[in-house]
Every structure is written in structure tokens, then in C-alpha cells.
Amino acid sequence: MALKKIWDILIIGGGPTGINCAIEAGKANLSALILEKGVITNSLFHFPVNMTFFSTSRLLEIGQIPFVSHNDKPTRQESLEYYRRLIQHFQLNYHTYETVQDIFPNDNSDFNFRYKVKTNKDEYDCKNIVIATGFYDKPVLLNIPGEELPKVRHYYDDPHRYIRQKVVIIGAANSACDAALEIWQKGGEVTMVIRGTEISPRVKYWIKPNIENRIKEGSITAYFNSEVLEILPGEILIKTDKETISLDNDWVLALTGYQPNINFLAHLGLTFEDQIQCKPTFDETTLETNLKGVYIAGVVCGGMETSKLFIENTRDHADRIIRDILLNNSTVVLVD
Distance between CA 157 and CA 183 in Å, rounded? Predict the structure, then answer.
């Protein structure tokens, strides 16, 4: 019987950070396997179809491979193609539609690996694990009556389905503003419900004045200092700072943000610095967590503070992790 392969690094999450970790592992002659629960770069795939990144293509480059785009700021489609080509170019071991369910420490000193990783398809033995799961897969829920209705969506994809429809968009950040403008431009009737007093200051600089002008001229209706109380099949109830009103409605886009899967991280055995921001406990230099040989990389390092870390300012995570593995974890030592 052939011996089962022991991976030097098993990477959970196949986005840009996971890909970068696998590339750097290969350069260091370490074997790496990426496990992605969806399609290749699953989170990017679920971005709006016509989305343009805030960052330049140069800041999104990894693996020292140029990211060539038609304009300074690349589109979703260009990004999907870029990362697909990276996987192909570096011949990365990349499994799609494979969900990690659990990890188990190896307590048998006869085998030189630290963890066994169980998925919905197989089991893998590995010396180190990198968790690069991002935060886009889990929306922040409103927890109000009617949120489970089929007309409610927490992701925006394409404006075509909303043509000549009455659409309420909840939120005032980039996703909400992009969706509002696109749907209005295609002929949808757009109403924005915004908890604060203004459009988020973090909205892309070329989008913010556009959405503010559309609201000012009345092309897009906006209720500030407001919240949705209940969603009904043909209407919604909104509480403003003055009154509670009912609006006829076909669709609700609850674009209120996203968060890391904290329950999944805790299930794997990670601890957290606090119970509010849920930032995982890890070494700020090496990115190793409370579990020996388990690292965390990318935007998931920020916990609930999802607006501080991005692809461009976490590109060094792969270097830091691989450097630590080479220095301290090249040989697994099991302690009783």
C-alpha cells in the first residue's frame, strides 16, 4: 500500500491570500494544498458582476507576477482571470468545492505530521495549517421579521433582475452605493435606508459624489437616521427619526456588511483576544495562532474589524508564515 502524502502546509481558503501562501510555499520547496469550499477565488466570484476595485492592479499583484488590466483599477472579471492564471502558472494544488469540517492533532509519534484535516470529501495529513478564509462568506444579518423571504438578498450581483422593480437597499457603504447607482441607471426604482446621517466616508471617491448628487436631486430616495423594522411580501416597514412608514417593495438588498465565520474558527480551536471584535489570538510577527503550527493570514486576522485589512496590505503575510515554518517547523516534534 502506498504511503499517504503528508503536506507541509494545508491552506484553508482559496482567495488571493491562500494563493499567495501556496506560491511562497512552492518557492521554499514546501508542498502545499489549498482547500476552497466554493469555486476558484470564491469570494471574488460573488462580487458584483460590474465591480471595479478600489485598489490599483499593481497593489493586487502577488507572486511577482504582473497584473495587467485595461485601466488602473481592475474589474472583477480581470481579477478572476488573473488569479486563475496564477494557479495555472504555478501549478498549485487547488481543490474546489471541498469544505473543511474539522482538524485533529496527531498523537501518534510514529508519523511525522502534526494535524489531520477532515473535509466533506477526504482526510489529509499535514505539518502546518494556514487559515485564510476571509470574511465575505458570512453576511451581517438584520435579525428582523421577514429577512428569510426570497425577495431579500445579502449579496448584489447584477442590475438586470431589478429593472422596473422597486428596490430597497439597506446600507450606505461601497456595496450599497454601487448597487443603488447601477440599478437606478438600468431603470429600477431605488430607495436607500441608512442608519447614519450620511453616506459612508469610506465609499470610493469616484462613487461618493455621484450617489450624493442622485439623492440630492431625488433620483434615488434616501431615508437617513432610519432602519427597516419588518419585511413583508409586498412592502416594508421603515422607522425614521420622525415616523414609521410603509413602502411598496419588490426586492430588498440588505448590504450591511460581512464578517468572518467566527464559529468555524472557534470550532477549529482558535482563541480570541476579546468577545466583541473577535480578533483571533496570534503572534503579530509570525501569524501563528494559539495552536502550534496553525497560522492565520489575510483579512480574517482583523476579526470583526473588516475595514482595516485588505489584499494589498496583507500581501506580506505569506512571507512571514513561510519564514517561520522554515525556521521553526521544518521538522514536527510530537510531545506527549
Answer: 11
